[in-house]
Design goal:
Layout (H helix, E strand, L loop, with lengths): L3 H4 L17 E3 L23 E3 L2 E4 L6 H12 L6 H10 L5 E5 L1 H6 L11 E9 L7 H17 L2 H11 L6 E8 L8 H17 L8 E11 L2 H7 L2 H9 L2 E3 L3 H7 L3 E6 L19 E11 L3 H12 L1
Parallel strand pairs: 6-7
Antiparallel strand pairs: 1-2, 3-4, 4-5, 5-6, 7-8, 7-10, 9-10
Helix pairs in contact: 2-3, 5-6, 7-11, 8-9
C-alpha cells in the first residue's frame, strides 16, 4: 500500500504557481442548489450546478495514481484495443516527465470526504510516450497499430502516407502526448502543465534520454452538433464559414490551437462507443453532440510556440 512513497517525488509546485492567485473552479456534480430548501432544481425543473473554489497542483505520477490515470486514459481510448494498464505503468515509470493534476494539499486537509478513492484524486494527466523507442512494449505496439488502422480507414491518402512513413522511420522519433483531464477543469491549467512538460522533455534530452522527438501525435476529444449542417445550407453563403466553425466543441480548448499547427490530421466518430467525457442532461431543444477523435501530427519544434499561444489564449 505504501509503495507509492518511494516514487512520491517532491510536489511540482511549479505546475500551479502561475495559478495561485487565480484558483481554478470545478462544478459540483451533486447538483445542489444555491437556495436553501430547494430540491436541487430551478423553476424550470433543471438541476443547478454549484461552483466551488478548488486549488490544483501538478505532481509527479506515482504508484497510488494508477487507477486514476487509467480512468483518464479510458475516457480517451474508450474501447480501443490498447493495454491501458501497461500504458499507465509506463507513464508512472517515467515520472520524471509528465504531471498528474491533484487537489492541493491545503484543500485536501479541509475536505471531509476522506473516503474518496485514489481514482477520484487524479483530475488530469499530461505526459508523453515515445512510440519509437518503446516499440518493444505491447501497449506501444498496439498504439502504433491503432493509429495506422484508424488512419487507413478515416484519413486522406496524404494522411495515410504521412502516418505510415513517419511511424516506419526510426530516425525520426515520435512522441504521443497524453493530455487528459476531467471536462470541468478550466483550460487555464493547460499552461503550467504543457510548460512543465516542455521543460522536462528538454532536461531529459540534455541527459541523453530518448526524448528527442521529431513529431508529436496528439489525440483530441471533440464534439460536433448534429443537424448544424442542414441549417447552414439555409443560411447565406457568407455566413456558412462562421456557422461551421461553431459546430465543433473541443473538450480541451487549447487543443484547437495545437490543431492549427498540425502538418497532418485525421478524425473519426466514436458515437458507437461509450463516451462520458461530456456529461449532463440534454434539453428537448438541444442539439445532440456527437463525440469524435481528431489525431494531430505536429512538428516537435513547434511545441514552445504553441505554449505561448495558449498563454495568450487564457490570459
Amino acid at each position: 500500500m505504501c509503495q507509492s512513497l518511494k516514487m512520491a517525488a517532491p510536489i511540482k509546485k511549479r505546475a500551479v504557481n502561475p495559478l495561485d492567485n487565480n484558483p481554478l473552479q470545478k462544478k459540483d456534480e451533486s447538483g445542489s442548489s444555491h437556495d436553501e430548501g430547494s430540491d436541487g432544481e430551478d423553476l424550470e425543473g433543471q438541476p443547478i450546478q454549484e461552483h466551488i473554489q478548488v486549488d490544483f497542483e501538478g505532481r509527479n505520477p506515482c504508484d497510488s495514481d494508477f487507477h486514476g490515470i487509467k480512468q483518464l486514459l479510458q475516457q480517451l481510448f474508450l474501447k480501443a484495443h490498447v493495454d491501458l494498464s501497461q500504458l499507465t505503468d509506463l507513464i508512472i515509470g517515467q515520472n520524471y516527465v509528465g504531471s498528474v493534476v491533484k487537489q492541493s494539499a491545503n484543500d485536501e486537509d479541509d475536505d471531509d470526504d476522506d473516503d474518496e478513492s485514489d481514482a477520484n484524486d487524479v483530475f488530469g494527466i499530461t505526459s508523453v510516450i515515445n512510440l519509437t523507442d518503446k516499440q518493444n512494449l505491447e501497449c506501444v505496439q498496439q498504439l502504433r497499430t491503432l493509429l495506422v488502422e484508424l488512419c487507413d480507414e478515416h484519413g486522406s491518402d496524404q494522411a495515410i502516407t504521412f502516418v505510415r512513413t513517419l511511424l516506419g522511420d526510426d530516425a525520426r522519433p515520435v512522441g504521443l502526448i497524453i493530455n487528459e483531464r476531467f471536462v470541468n477543469i478550466p483550460v487555464q491549467i493547460a499552461v503550467p502543465l504543457l510548460d512543465s512538460l516542455s521543460k522536462e522533455i528538454k532536461r531529459a534530452k540534455e541527459k541523453k534520454m530518448p526524448f528527442n522527438f521529431s513529431y508529436f501525435i496528439v489525440i483530441c476529444k471533440l464534439y460536433k452538433m448534429e443537424g448544424t449542417t442542414k441549417r447552414n445550407k439555409k443560411k447565406n453563403k457568407k455566413l456558412q464559414s462562421s456557422s461551421e466553425e461553431l459546430e465543433i466543441l473541443w473538450s480541451n480548448p487549447e487543443e484547437e490551437l495545437i490543431a492549427k499547427e498540425a502538418e497532418c490530421f485525421f478524425e473519426f466518430s466514436v458515437k458507437k462507443e461509450s463516451d462520458s467525457g461530456l456529461s449532463g442532461q440534454w434539453l428537448e431543444d438541444d442539439e445532440e453532440m456527437t463525440p469524435y477523435r481528431r489525431v494531430l501530427l505536429v512538428p516537435a519544434n513547434k511545441l514552445d510556440g504553441i505554449i505561448e499561444q495558449v498563454k495568450k489564449f487564457v490570459a
